[in-house]
Amino acid sequence: NAYGMVHDMVAVFATLADLRSAQLQPCTMIYGSVLTACSKAGEKDLAQTTLAEMCAAAAEPNIGHFTSVISSYAKSKDEDRARETFKEMQRRGFHIDLVAYTGLLGCIGGPGALQRAEELAEEVRGACIRLDATFY
Question: Which residues of the chain have pLDDT under 70?
Fold first, then answer.
């Protein structure tokens, strides 16, 4: 939504609260908008909480929802939590795409980052996904 585009997380969650107060259950598209806003703002805890809430509400998340959560970890280089979310996508049987791998790549930092990035690139190749310029 428009609030997410300007990183106004208070307004994003106020809109979500308005839906609930009207006794409307947010759909997957609304959750997707909230997760995208969290991702763009680097609000990793809000993203993770929103995904958990989405799952609890029986609104079935898709790969884009999980990828938004992974991308929310990029600003803080929270590779461990990004990998946990990535593994959850795999456990749920999602066909992991280049966008998800690229999101995970953005979370790699610190000592040994180059080696882990190269290992991730090899994993992508092993999954028969063609790497493009966005991955590098």
Answer: 1-7, 136
